[in-house]
Amino acid sequence: MNPAALRTAREALGWTQAEAAQRAEVPQPELSRWERGLRQANSEQIERLAVALQVPASFLLADLRLARPIHRTAKAETKRSERMVNARLELARIAASRLVADIEIAAPFDFPTAEDPTPPDPEAAAEAIRRVWRIPPGPINDLTAHVESAGGIVLRADFGVDSILAAYCHVRADARWCFLNVRAADGARARFSLAHEIGHAVLHWDRFDAPEGPDAEREAHRFAAALLMPAAEIRAMFAHARLTLDDFVHARMRWRVSIQALVTRAYDLGLLSIHQRTRLWKQISARGWRRAEPGPIDLEVPSTFAGALELQRTEHEYSENELADVAGLPLFRLAEFMPDYFAPESSSNRAALRLIK
Question: What's the domain count of the chain?
């Protein structure tokens, strides 16, 4: 049995070892040893674990390449919820990667590599990405489309929590996976979170000297701001001396980022004094815009994975249950993790109705 697969299946449900052991009717000390690879379960115990953890027994036995998704860990409410998010995204990635394994994705651009890296400075790296991905000057209309044009796969998934909006994961010889939380409601914040994860992908993957923890988060944040709000263009737009909150409201709709991100960017570029920034923050708070800003900005819709599934359904004529077999997870789990792409199993088992002639 694969210890990492066992732990991932358990954590995806948000269960402790004691909770999983109780549901599987196995001793908790034994489960701990199995997860650490100190002992192997027998076939009967593996079957009980598979039923309890809602995965096929073959998943627990598979030689899987697991990775830890990168996301803004400070947004996780607890370590337990963070582990649950990581495990859910890993199960979604593994299933999705199996479903695209036989599909060629021809992308016109590339992510940086160890052989051809971007500059380590976040501002310079963002400029390089805009140049290499041929992003025109001005606001980025569809950031998701640019990620997919570079061979990344953007997957809308249910993270199991509301607080984390995006994540990134890359396993060698596999695609670059970016995740967007289906629970996100604000397109501006979702775009910035996606840009933040691209920052990790560009700056911190395959670098031996990459920073960790808060330093890595600060670099990814600076990259996201520079990618979505290039310094020269923001300086030109906010050239007049006294900026008002209305200026930032209009800029939000043009650049499709949050007012708070724009205020922070203007301050970091020296366009606002600390007193001006404080005044603007107070106005934002007074209007209740910390949580919900004015003017809806639509969520971006990825296309690569949805297109791959359409090929599987039309060219291979796979049913939903056959897709689940390829993915290696039950259909109801696919619908749980990726509700945009799969319907719950119950809906596919309903009786068919037709008129009797």
Answer: 2
The C-alpha angle 196, 201, 206, rounded to 5 degrees, equals 145
- On whether the CB atoms of residues 178 and 152 are closer than 8 A, the answer is yes
pLDDT-based confidence at residue 348 (cuts at 50, 70, 90): very low
Say if CB 174 and CB 167 are below 8 A apart: no
Degrees, nearest 5: CA angle 131-149-201: 70
Is residue 18 domain-shared with residue 50, that is, in the same domain?
yes
Query: Helical H runs in 271-337?
Result: 274-286, 304-314, 320-327, 331-337
pLDDT of residue 94 exceeding 70, the answer is: yes
Considering the entire predicted model, what is its pTM? 0.89
pLDDT grade, residue 73 (50/70/90)?
A: low
- State both tokens at 172: 């060698």
Q: Does residue 2 fall inside a structural domain?
A: yes
Q: Which of 12, 43, 64 is the last residue of a domain?
A: 64
pLDDT digit string, tens, across residues 129-152: 999 999 999 999 999 999 999 999
The answer to whether 98 touches 328, Cβ cutoff 8 Å, is yes
From 64, 81, 106, the end of a domain falls on: 64
Q: What angle do CA 13, 16, 17 make, to 5 degrees?
A: 110
Q: What percent of the chain has pLDDT over 90?
A: 74
Same domain, 70 and 179: yes
Distance CA 160, CA 82 (A): 10
Domain that holds residue 220: 65-228+298-340
CA distance 105 to 83: 31
CB 323 within 8 A of CB 313: yes
- Structure tokens, 107: 């992308």
